[in-house]
Design a protein that fits this description.
368 residues, 12 strands, 11 helices, Rossmann fold, 6-stranded parallel β-sheet, 4-stranded parallel β-sheet, 2 domains, alpha/beta
Amino acid sequence: MRRFLARSVAIGAVALLAMTACSERSTDGGDEPAGDGKGFAADALIGVALPAKTSENWVLAGDLFTNGLKEAGFASDVQYAGASGTVADQQSQISAMVTKGAKVIVIGATDAAQLSTQVEQAKGAGATVIAYDRLIKNTAAVDYYVAYDNFRVGQLQGQALLEGMKAKKPTGPYTIELFAGSPDDNNSGVFFNGAMDVLKKEIDAGNVVVGSGQTDIKQVSTDGWKAENAQRRMDSLLTGTYSGAKTPDGVLSPNDTLARAIITSVKGAGKPLPVVTGQDSEVESVKSIVAGEQYSTINKDTRNLVKKTIEMVQALQAGKDVEVNDTESYNNGVKVVPSYLLPPLIVTKGNAAEAYANDPKLAPLTKQ
């Protein structure tokens, strides 16, 4: 892992053995990007194409981009990929931004593998393309990637799962189930591979057992990141693998929305709550963590991510070098994309008050 990232929690070290090769992370290196010195007008149009409003953070990101770009003096066109979140919506929106003359287009991809035509169209028109939160695949036309370190997110989720189970039951073996995000989201595989980077040694040693035997990402993916799909699968696992008095000790959930769906399923079955991980610091999940139900989440402060993205846009406008801190790790299948990665923070009940002390929305939730 990159040395610049601060470790956010001290959890027992776990040997790193990747379950599957992660093509998004490469050690081939890449050229350090530099400003072209040309810049563009200070009031130029900046396009922002985001997926559907499937989480609180996507809703917040849209508001932050709208207000932040305006405050920075830019005209903005912030679009969501409709209620259905279809890739066709986003493809049309990006093409429209190109037609309108956007100088920079920031894209939170609905489907990372199906935007190459639109990204290349934008590049051909002279726009700079910044992949936001989700790496865009299979095109050399992506200029930059800005995100939290998503592989590290997965590692922290895996570590939290182990730590939480050991806190509840000092000795194993522990029985778990695995959930992953939507297969059309490039980050789903990054999160999952990061978690398995931590969990696989314990599984191989017999210290952790996947009760259903479902360990392949294709088996554990959750279409559309939809809560109802996660709850349906957990219902099925509980009636099948965990009939009678059987119960899992832990569930790897890739985000908070799915974590709450998993918890709802377990409650409905009348079984003891397992250790359940999450991500995104959603309000209801922070409440759940404080109440002792969901075990953990990952804080990836959207305010900081949007702020960094707008700083990149400002550098491009001024014709200056764009700051990146990683030119080796994220290979989109065609090139290693110069990236700026922010460090994620794991949050449990024990550190929630400190973690959210500067968040006006979440800080009040941690008061006991």
